[in-house]
Design goal:
Low-confidence stretches: 371-375
Structural class: mainly beta
Mean pLDDT: 90
Number of helices: 0
Helix content: under 10%
Largest sheet: 5 strands, mixed
Strand order of the largest sheet: 20-27-26-22-24
């Protein structure tokens, strides 16, 4: 007698992953929707107990898995500079509804960098001051840019794009050191307002050619004044003629301008007259900062018959001993009819004979004006 005994299968085996460890390398610019890996798990049980479903636990925002085929797909744009690697936990579960069994496996995903980012300048903003007497070769500032791609950063090179008037600055191509190349002068109209340099950083390829990855920024440089200028008059000599009856306070018709090209208190100075009889005139202003028009006025009554002409010096003097401006002033008085006639003597006595003839000269009267001749 034969007996056929059929053994019924029960779900007593969990799925088994094959081909571990699971690792994959993908570029950060892998398009969304790209399959990147297939995991494989089997279950020897029969029926639903041997059917396997896949899932990622916990779920990922960047990757998804096909629940029946085990295909892992990119679901969101990747960025090496943010995350360089992902560790996914893949769950394989059979479909037994009463007693499902599952197994976990790790999938290590490494992201590789691509050169997809431009360089950036660091330590911004770039702004500095430099004294106008700084010697050529002075280091103004170190400019630094970095490659934002972190996998294998490229070499950065530096250039000045604009704003380098008269090539007064030099920028080292590789180090980014900005140095003074020429002689500054704040009083030069080209330099007075300072400089706004536009500088560029460019990534260099392995063959030392330039890539398209660049960045620009501005660098503000202010030239600081030093007291290196003496006051100057707009002429070395001033000459004028005025009436001797000019009233007190009369302003002489002379255009006198004095200027110190330095800045602020470096341009402060005093103005004064020096010479014989210079106290017959006054000037204003006597204290100046920067530039001023100087007025010369009559201080005392003038008299051509006493002093027909004046000559004295006009000084502009700073606190610095060798910073002195100098000019000559010549003033000629115009003679006017301001004196009455004078007889040669106050009383004339004459004795005449009674028989004096008609036409006989009996007296010579001398009348004159007071007049002194000066050379």
């Amino acid at each position: 007698m034969k007996a056929n005994i059929q053994v019924g299968d029960v779900n007593d085996n969990a799925p088994t992953f094959h081909g571990q460890p699971y690792t994959v390398r993908i570029a950060e610019n892998t398009p969304v929707g790209t399959p990147i890996y297939i995991v494989n798990a089997t279950d020897p049980d029969q029926g639903t107990g041997g059917s396997v479903l896949y899932s990622i636990q916990p779920s990922s925002n960047f990757f998804a898995i096909d629940k029946t085929r085990g295909i892992v797909t990119v679901m969101k744009e990747l960025d090496f500079e943010i995350t360089q690697a992902y560790q996914l936990q893949v769950n394989a579960t059979d479909q037994d509804k009463t007693k499902p069994l599952s197994t976990l496996a790790n999938l290590a995903i490494t992201i590789t960098d691509i050169q997809d980012m431009d360089p950036i300048f660091i330590n911004l903003p770039y702004s500095t001051n430099i004294y106008e007497n700084s010697p050529p070769g002075t280091t103004v500032r170190m400019l630094t840019a970095i490659d934002q791609d972190k996998g294998r950063p490229r070499t950065i090179v530096y250039t000045i794009v604009s704003g380098n008037t008269n090539s007064i600055f030099a920028l080292d191509y590789f180090s980014g050191a900005l140095t003074l190349f020429g002689q500054l002068d704040r009083e030069n109209p080209l330099y007075m307002s300072g400089f706004i340099l536009t500088v560029k950083a460019t990534e260099q390829l392995d063959d030392r050619t330039l890539s398209d990855a660049t960045v620009t920024t501005t660098f503000n440089i202010l030239v600081i004044d030093i007291n290196d200028n003496a006051p100057q008059f707009n002429s070395s000599e001033y000459s004028v003629s005025i009436p001797e009856l000019a009233q007190l306070g009369f302003a002489l018709p002379m255009y006198i301008e004095v200027q110190d090209k330095d800045e602020g208190m470096n341009s402060a100075f005093d103005v004064y007259l020096v010479g014989n009889n210079s106290n017959h005139f006054i000037i204003s202003p006597t204290s100046v900062q920067g530039k001023a028009d100087i007025r010369v006025r009559v201080a005392v009554p003038l008299d051509y018959e006493t002093i027909p002409r004046y000559q004295f010096s006009l000084f502009a003097n700073e606190s610095v001993s060798d910073h002195v401006g100098f000019s000559k002033v010549k003033i000629n008085l115009i003679n006017e009819n301001d004196n009455r006639p004078i007889f040669s003597q106050p009383l004339y006595n004459i004795t005449l004979y009674e028989n004096v003839t008609v036409g006989t000269t009996i007296l010579k009267v001398i009348v004159s004006k007071t007049f002194l001749s000066y050379k």
